[in-house]
Amino acid sequence: MTCDEAEILLHALLDGELDAGHAREVEQHIATCPRCAAQLRSYREMSNAVSDADLHYIAPAALRRRIEAALPQPRQPLPVMA
Amino acid sequence: MPMGGSGNDPERARRFRDAALPHLDDVYTLARHLLRDATDAEDAVQECYLRALKHFDSYRGPAMKPWLLAILRNVCRAEFARRASSATAPIDDVPDDAGQTPLWHETQETPETQVLRRRDATTIRRLVADLAEPFRETFVLREIQNLSYREIADVVGAPVGTVMSRLARARAMLRAAWMAEEEQPT
Description:
The structure holds two protein chains of two kinds.
Chain A: H1 3-14, H2 20-32, H3 34-53, H4 61-70
Helix pairs in contact in A: 1-2, 1-3, 2-3
Chain B: H1 10-20, H2 24-35, H3 38-54, H4 64-86, H5 112-118, H6 121-129, H7 133-144, H8 149-156, H9 160-183
């Protein structure tokens, strides 16, 4: 495997998207290529840092209420007539 | 005004609520990253849920979350188009081959992993926001929404190979920006 081929596939390795055969090929390349090995370490660290930073947002309560209110509501029981 | 859809069936609404509302934070998160504006994001999410309810009867999968994210993405594309036509904000959708950043950009003498760890959440959020749109979108779907490549491909309507190359570009650009900040502190 060349560095050009590894360029894309190391991301798939990082993301667990490779089957066993392709993963082995990339790992064999990385074992013999310090440059690609450094790239993989670097991207793994960046991925961990992004994960630690937690870039999720919480939907505002008002937005949730607006969406809830816009849904058809369950039928209210009819008032009991005396 | 209640959302329309096919009839005002409360049972259908209950099924929709149970299936779709647990993903509200994820949908809102993608909207915030795509539109980079809290008010626009809220409007887009509300429109997304309105459309989702309308088409809920035809929903046969895939998983609910990617389905909602795909609808949200379409809503955001319409917003991009509106912004472009109003010319109040530049559209930053660039073709995949624009602004080539070398993937093998070798730079720093400093131990890179230390540099990467040093970034705080606010800086990381800003660096992600600065990525051009198709790369930011793919990056967020993978790194924040944890979708598989197949799911991302379905959401953005592109082949898996395109997803892979966009993700590689996104990470390379983010890493370059990350390292550039270290070299030129503001």
